[in-house]
Amino acid sequence: KAYKAVIDRHLKCGYIVPVPEHQLASSYLPRWYLPHHAVINPKKPDKIRVVFDCASRYRDACLHDYLLQGPNITTSLEKVLLRFRRDRVALASDIQEMFLQVRVPEHDRGALRFLWWKHGDLNDETIELQMAVHPFGATSSPFCASIALRKSADYSGEPAGSAVRETIEQSFYVDDCLTSVSTAAEASELVKGLLRVMSFVGFRLTKWASNEPQALQGLPSTEISEKLWI
């Protein structure tokens, strides 16, 4: 029931889409079917993550063999942590479902197909679905998501301040933002700037935390972390 709820939600959000009728022909390429399974964190037993196994082999081949990994452009954790501890006012945030916000071009989605049951009923016929976004488990997903984040300041529709741009380029470790500034006023302005730029390109920054409450003034309580651990 929980697994079905995840698939239903992803369909509703457009992360997963039915394979179009004209692409169901066996001659259509690319066409690859991914096994999928649930991963459960023992610390969060009520939360299920559906993972697509891009390393699964069929006739001695797997999807990873045909994907380009791309260069590693993730800022090193050491550098992120050093900047996080540099100034007095610390800020932390998280991009919600980062990989799932980055679209896969329509002509490539056939490589990310999987089988499911109609209406999620195990007694019903199987249907073909495919990912419209980058899945967890694909070797190309981290780079695609990271380059989308790096480019967000350029495509936000308005000039991004130097502090916002520097934070995006140097203070994210994958989907986690950790940074620090000198004053609460600077922190508040940085929060507003990051939210403006990120929301324009479809990234939602949430779970905000700070050692200075004034830095988070104006944010809805739903966007603030339950654990103000800083």
Question: What does this 3D model show about the protein?
Answer:
By secondary structure, the chain is α+β, with helices and mostly antiparallel strands. Helix content is 25%, strand content 20%. It contains 5 helices and 9 strands, in the order H-E-E-E-H-E-E-E-H-H-E-E-H-E. The strands form 3 sheets. A 4-stranded antiparallel sheet has the order 7-8-4-9. A 3-stranded antiparallel sheet has the order 1-6-5, covered by helices on one side. The protein has a two-stranded antiparallel sheet with strand order 2-3. Helix 4 (162-170) packs across helix 5 (184-201). The longest helix is centred in the last third of the chain and has 18 residues, at 184-201. The chain is elongated, with a radius of gyration of 20 Å. The model has no long low-confidence stretch (mean pLDDT 91).
Task: List the secondary-structure elements in sequence, H or E.
Answer: HEEEHEEEHHEEHE
Indicate the multimeric state: single chain
The total of helices stands at: 5
Euclidean distance between termini CA atoms: 37 Å
Major β-sheet annotation: 4 strands, antiparallel
In spatial order, strands of the major sheet run 7-8-4-9
Rg measurement, Å: 20 Å
The helix/strand class is alpha+beta
Q: Kindly state the number of beta strands.
A: 9
From the structure above, extract its key features.
230 residues; alpha+beta; three-stranded antiparallel sheet
